[in-house]
Specification:
The chain has one domain (5-239): NAD(P)-binding Rossmann-like Domain (Rossmann fold). It contains 9 helices and 9 strands. The longest helix has 29 residues, at 98-126. It is globular and about 55 Å long. It is α/β, with parallel strands linked by helices. The strands form 2 sheets. Strands 3-2-1-4-5-6-9 form a 7-stranded parallel β-sheet, sandwiched between helices. A two-stranded parallel ribbon has the order 7-8. The model has no long low-confidence stretch (mean pLDDT 94). The chain starts with a strand and ends in a 5-residue tail after the last helix. The chain is 46% helix and 16% strand. α1 (13-23) links the parallel β1 and β2 (29-33).
């Protein structure tokens, strides 16, 4: 049987599909969320469908003081840890409400960075492991439509890059996932372009494939790499005139 996979923020649509993708390959699964009882059906489904052991764990990304204890309390140090914690928020609300902005920034950057640092230390001491962070193309250039969320994801992307550099010679690999638009509960009601919008199952398959191939950065739909290359290359005077 393959090594255990820890999925943080396991109640999200993307996280569920990531768990299924790894379970289908025979990995034991550790599902972690603030209310793990909500994952009982997922646990039963994974165990029945794929015949792998699944455990549930209480985890709060914002309770950073508890992160070291959380890692120490796992059944074993996972071989693969996937952080799918995230909160998009509403730009108008986060621009007007400092607490809402702080919640978005802490959920997308501070909390994920804190728990991954604890896992990184443990994996480094062991000399092996893979860390996967679900970031966003929104962090590649600040845009008026979502700059608070984008700023948090930019910080997380930079963190993952630095962590990858730090651990490159320590036997621990770090993967950054940039999904682009995904049809999830978080994006429900948004008018999303079909060509740029992935299904959660595509994210699960892309993460599994990227980990198996040792990728550093994963664009779930390759078209996003082209799109963001163009957006990032726009000179600032031109970029200021866009509505993105």
């Amino acid at each position: 049987m393959s090594g255990a996979v820890l999925v943080l923020g396991a109640t999200s649509d993307m996280a569920r599909e990531i768990a299924r993708a790894f379970a289908a390959k025979g990995h034991p699964i550790r599902l972690a969320a603030r209310v793990p009882e909500r994952l009982a059906d997922d646990k039963a489904d994974l165990e029945t469908r794929f015949g792998v052991p699944v455990t549930l764990h209480a985890f709060d990304a914002l309770d950073t003081a508890a992160h070291a204890g959380f890692v120490a309390g796992l059944p074993e140090l996972p071989e693969i840890a996937v952080c799918a914690v995230g909160l998009m928020g509403d730009q108008a609300e986060t621009a007007a409400d400092p607490e809402a902005a702080a919640r978005v920034m802490r959920t997308n950057f501070e909390g994920p960075a804190s728990i991954l640092e604890r896992l990184a230390d443990a994996m480094e001491a062991r000399g092996s492991g893979t860390i996967v962070g679900i970031s966003s193309v929104a962090g590649l250039r600040g845009r008026a439509s979502n700059y608070v969320y984008g700023a948090a994801k930019a910080g997380f992307t930079a963190y993952l890059s630095g962590l990858r550099n730090r651990l490159a010679k320590r036997g621990v690999h770090v993967v950054t996932v940039l999904p682009g638009f995904v049809r999830t509960r978080m994006t429900e009601g948004l008018d999303l372009p079909d060509r740029l919008t992935a299904e959660p199952s595509e994210v699960g398959a892309a993460v599994l494939r990227g980990v198996e191939k040792g990728r550093n950065i994963i664009y779930v739909r390759p078209v996003w790499q082209v799109v963001m290359t163009i957006i990032r290359a726009l000179p600032e005077p031109i970029f200021k005139k866009t509505s993105l």
